[in-house]
Amino acid sequence: MNFVLRNRQFLLILSLLLAGSATNAATNGLVVPAFRGSANSEAGYWEVFTMAAGAPGNLADGAGSTSGAVLTQHSPNAFLTGSGNIYNFTDASTFTLADVTPFALGTVVLQTRTVGSELDYSSVQLTYTDGGGVHSVAPLFRLELDRSVGNGDNVSSLWQWDLSGLGVSSYSIAFAAAESSMSFDALTLDTWNQFSVVPEPSVAALGGIAGLLLLTRARNFKPALRRLGKH
Q1: What pLDDT sits at residue 217?
Q2: Mean confidence (pLDDT) of the chain
Q3: Which one, 1, 40, 87, 225, has least CB within 10 Å?
C-alpha cells in the first residue's frame, strides 16, 4: 500500500513539473515539441479555419506547416466566426483529423485550444486500420496546458500517443465537444517516427524530480532504521 501511495505521489509531482516546463509556450498555451523540424517528422498548425462543416475540411494554415492532415467538423449547424473559429451554439460539434505520413509513426501529439464550452476529453481517440482490422488507441494522457476565464473557459490541452513498432502511417483522431456553444480556436499536430514524451521536462524539473525522490527515500528510510534499532 505504501508503495502504491509513493508512486501516486511521484506521478503527481512529475505531472506538475512537466506542466510547469510548458510555461515558455506561446500565449495560447500550446507547446513546441523538441523534435519539431527533425528528420521524419511533420507539423501542422490550424489557426484560421475556412470550412465550418463537411468536405473538403481544413488544411493546416500556419506558416511552416508540413503536415497534409485534414480537419473536418461534422455538425451542419456549425459556422465560422469573424476570427476564423468554428462555433456551434446549437449542437455539440464533432471532429475528425485524418492524416497520412511518409514514415511509420513513433508518436502523435495533438494540441487544441477551445473557448466557451469545453471538449469532451474522454472522446479523444486515435484509430488506424491494418490487416487485423480497425484498432482504437486511447492517448497516453491529457495534459491541460492553460486555462483562463473569458467567454467561458479558454482551455489548451495536449494528448500524446505512442505508436512505436505498430507500422502505422495512416490514422485518424476523433473528438467532440462536451456540449453546444464551443468555439474551436486552434489545433496543432506533430508526428515523428520516434517517441519522446511531450512536453519535455526542463533541467530544473529533472533536478526537482531527483531531489523529491531522494527526499521520499530518506523519509521512508528513517522509520526503517528506528525499527531496526528496537531489535
Answers
A1: 54
A2: 84
A3: 1
Average of pLDDT values for 129-150? Answer: 94
CB 70 within 8 A of CB 97: yes
Instruction: Domains for the chain: give ranges and CATH numbers.
Output: 1-21+201-231 (no CATH), 28-199 (2.60.120)
Per-residue model confidence as pLDDT tens digits over 109-135: 999 999 999 999 999 999 999 999 999
